[in-house]
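Structure in, sequence out. Go:
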């Protein structure tokens, strides 16, 4: 069964699982407001198309190498590759404890307001340790993901909306507002149109590592664990067959590479 991102958010609201608006904060938190720049017609069209595009999250088993389009979020990825906007950038993000969210925010701010490209699209090609930020709270707790980071992060702080996220977005010069360093988190960036790509290879690698270490509460096989991790990606993420293999496709589509 394929469900859209909108379906996912509705289910989450009914079940009390953390998540609201385009990203996920806590269920009791108010939704984020409109945060795209004025005149961002193409970007808003893409966001709407991605919101409607199905994300498969009912996997039972997933192999090491994907060979069929129904094994990843093909439709959503195609919308991204055919984005009508002229200005677009893909960030090769691997370091979860680095400035990756801050850099994308800075790039977006400069492109939108300094260079006046309201349709500027930022994409996070997420893999390596940074990929841990794309799993929901359930997996962080169940598989003791903080231990993989030496407990530097006790929870998925990257999905937590700060008070700055609810500041007036019209005041883009607010030094403590939604576009400032006080609001470097995934949900706010998603609300601004940033797209986070998930990596099947990263999922397979972490599943294999946890399986080998015996961190496997349900005694799953590796393909079953890969399925569970794929099913628990954050709302809005686009599952790809592998980031390093998807980066060339983005390059062919005109995305500027950044790291």
């Amino acid at each position: 069964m394929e469900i859209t991102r909108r379906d996912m958010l509705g289910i989450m609201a009914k079940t009390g699982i953390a998540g609201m608006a385009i990203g996920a904060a806590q269920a009791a938190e108010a939704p984020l407001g409109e945060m795209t720049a004025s005149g961002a017609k193409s970007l808003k069209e893409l966001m709407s198309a991605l919101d409607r595009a199905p994300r498969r999250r009912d996997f039972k088993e997933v192999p090491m190498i994907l060979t069929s389009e129904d094994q990843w979020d093909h439709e959503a990825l195609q919308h991204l590759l055919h984005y009508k906007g002229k200005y677009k950038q893909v960030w090769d993000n691997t370091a979860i404890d680095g400035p990756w969210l801050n850099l994308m925010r800075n790039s977006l701010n400069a492109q939108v307001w300094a260079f006046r490209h309201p349709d500027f699209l930022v994409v996070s090609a997420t893999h390596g340790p940074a990929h841990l930020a794309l799993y929901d709270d359930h997996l962080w707790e169940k598989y003791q993901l903080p231990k993989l980071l030496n407990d530097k992060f006790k929870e998925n702080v990257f999905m937590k909306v700060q008070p700055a996220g609810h500041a007036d977005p019209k005041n883009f010069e607010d030094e403590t507002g939604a576009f400032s360093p006080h609001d470097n988190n995934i949900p706010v960036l998603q609300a601004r149109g940033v797209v986070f790509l998930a990596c099947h290879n990263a999922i397979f690698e972490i599943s294999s590592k946890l399986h080998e270490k015996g961190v496997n509460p349900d005694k799953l096989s590796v393909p079953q664990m890969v399925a569970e991790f794929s099913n628990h990606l954050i709302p809005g993420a686009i599952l790809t067959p592998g980031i390093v293999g998807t980066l060339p496709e983005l390059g062919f589509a005109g995305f500027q590479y950044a790291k």
